[in-house]
Design a protein that fits this description.
7-stranded mixed β-sheet; 4-stranded antiparallel β-sheet; single chain; globular; alpha+beta; 29% helix; 8 helices
Length: 298
């Protein structure tokens, strides 16, 4: 086990059919075998559930998001060391495949109900490996009211400071509700140009592609149209997207600057906070790209 061993490894491919009948194939990834004993030991410790705290540097008119916090004192020293080494690997060794998107599988088999805590600990270990840069990883709960009133969420990028996004389903909605929408950025750009015109769409693309320093206002500037869709863009982007039904322990890994995601209608809300667990993170390379542009949130 070494922090030069990637956290995730390729394990196959998955082909998804688009609404127009064409198919798209992406890689499938899972935990690297060399890290599986660390995760097994972590779950065996039965660590407590995470707690939350507010992010003191992220304040908008809509409020301040909470992040999850892990109690490292709950772990024996050797298990804590293993998780810290795993976080260091996620910082030093890129895992996003070419094309910016991968399906995930087998992500909860070792961890069970401790999946959320493990992702939180992994993010905090990455922050430590980065030299304590707080914006390099965040385990952010999915808001109970996120998205539209029908439970759907039009395509978007999460647009946290860190570039990469790892989403793991632990309690998927029943009956194929809340299926994942995936739309490559070039497809979205074409629709955005038709809706907003070339100039406004170009500004949106610069923010989404992270060609300008990250700012708290970027999400609203790029996706405020969700609330007042006079262009019928929700329908157009949903029809253009891949629709993927993930089961327990599955999910996806995405470069948030190259691929958009969303979800279909969810009638049965259930326990939304435990349905999907999200870790946003930078690696050393993506952080250096962000730092080179400067800005307030580094």
């Amino acid at each position: 086990m070494s922090d030069s061993t990637p956290v995730l490894v390729l394990t196959g491919e998955r082909t998804v059919e688009r609404n127009d009948g064409s198919t798209v194939t992406h890689p499938v990834m899972t935990w690297h075998p060399q890290w599986r004993p660390v995760l097994t030991a972590f779950a065996a410790c039965s660590p407590p559930a995470t707690t939350t705290r507010l992010v003191d540097w992220y304040v908008t008119a809509d409020g301040t998001p909470p992040i999850e916090v892990f109690d490292w004192n709950s772990l024996p020293g050797d298990v804590a060391d293993g998780m810290r080494a795993m976080g260091a690997s996620l910082w030093h060794v890129p895992v996003i495949p070419e094309g910016g998107f991968a399906h995930l599988t087998g992500m909860t088999q070792l961890l069970g109900r401790h999946t959320s805590a493990a992702l939180t600990a992994l993010g905090e270990a990455l922050i430590e490996a980065s030299g304590g840069r707080q914006t390099t990883a965040m385990k952010v709960p999915i808001g109970a009211n996120a998205g539209l009133p029908d439970g759907s969420f039009p395509v978007h990028v999460d647009d946290w400071p860190a570039r990469n996004l790892l989403n793991v389903f632990t309690k998927p909605a029943p009956d194929k509700q809340g299926a994942t929408l995936v739309l490559p950025l070039p497809d979205y750009e074409r629709l955005a140009v038709a809706a907003f015109g070339p100039a406004q769409a170009a500004e949106m693309m610069r923010r989404i592609r992270r060609e300008v320093p990250w700012d708290l206002l970027h999400y609203e500037q790029s996706f405020g149209w969700h609330e007042n869709d006079e262009w019928d863009l929700i329908r157009a982007t949903t029809e253009a997207s891949m629709v993927i039904v993930y089961g327990e322990g599955e999910g996806y890994l995405v470069d948030d600057s190259t691929v958009l995601h969303g979800r279909t209608v969810v009638v049965e809300r259930g326990d939304r906070l435990n349905r999907l667990h999200r870790l946003t993170f930078d690696n050393e390379q993506s952080y250096l790209l962000r730092a080179a542009m400067g800005g307030e949130y580094l």
